[in-house]
Amino acid sequence: MAKKSSKKKQYRFNEHDENQVQVVLKKQKQKKKKKRTRRIVFLLVLMVIVAFFVSPASRIKSIKVSGNQYVDSQDILDQSKLSTSSVFPYTFVTNSIVKKRIESLPMIENAKIIYDIVGNVKIKITESDVIAWGTVKKKNYVIDRNGRVSVVKDTSSLIGTTKVSDFKKLKLFKQFAEEYVKIPVIIRNDVSDIVYFPKTKDTSRIALKLNDGKIFYMRIEDMAEQLENFDYDAYMQAYGNRCIFSFEGDNLFMKKCTSSSDDATNESTESTDSNTQQN
Are 74 and 198 in the same domain? Predict the structure, then answer.
């Protein structure tokens, strides 16, 4: 009789060896569990965010403005629309909006918003250069290098800055500012005083007084074009003994220096040729 094999019978398992219904149910259960977990996490995060924004922790603790000399700090704060009751500007978008608001103010060249994690905000201001200043109806105004006009309270820092005088209307003062920034810098740097000096039929006439005592008379609306085409250095060398320069249309009238040449009210001119007139 043949001997029975001592080896155990081996089985191979495949995917059909398990109950497929149970497998599917198990996978569905796992998916539901993961989905439920994600929902719980999302709700917890949402609750934390909501709790933060409604709590005092999300509010600005302090706001400090620095770098401003001419623009009032309160004007900057008002324009920023930030206050200690404002939600802390954590996002770049909010920060960018605040920056644009502040930089829309005249005289503000750049605004940098810095904040720390505890809610303190610092606004660092870079102001535009002031090229002239004047008083209109008892209010002091500065003109920046872009031709923008701003009200200032303290004029103590404006000593040595070109002074604009005798303007009665702010609208005309602003028109002057827009044109004045267009004249050549070499001339503008030599101007010490500007006087509104109208005539009966010439209501936009001004006098530009230079550091050396010379005076330029011209109309506000014409000065940028006239001085752009004026060879300042050449005229100062060729006509160094002339102190009155009156720009009238295409003509330039000049007068020799006298002891009273620095008085804008003592003006007189005579002509000798069609384009350049000299006394």
Answer: no
pLDDT surpasses 50 at 262: no
- Average pLDDT estimate for 195-206: 93
Q: What's the mean pLDDT in 137-156?
A: 92
Task: Tell me, yes or no, whether 134 and 184 share the same domain.
Answer: yes
Question: How many whole angstroms separate alpha carbon 25 and alpha carbon 84?
Answer: 56
Q: What is the pLDDT of residue 265?
A: 43
How many domains does the chain fold into? 2
Mean pLDDT of 219-239: 92
Count, in order, helices (H) and strands (E) of the chain.
7, 13
Q: Name the pTM for this structure.
A: 0.69
Q: Which among 102, 127, 152 is the end of a domain?
A: 127
Q: Residues near 163 by Cβ (< 8 Å), separated by ≥ 6?
A: 132, 133, 134, 192, 193, 194
> Tokens representing 12?
């191979």
What tens digit of pLDDT does each residue of 183-194 get? 999 999 999 999
Do 152 and 274 share a domain, yes or no?
yes
| Domain residue limits at 175 | 130-278
- 175: its two tokens: 């028109």
Q: Do residues 164 and 194 make contact, with C-beta atoms less than 8 angstroms apart?
A: yes
End-of-domain residue from the set 127, 145, 177: 127
What does the pLDDT read at residue 32? 79
> Rounded CA gap, 8 and 150, in Å?
102
Looking from the CA of 111 toward its CB, the CA atoms found within 13 Å total: 27
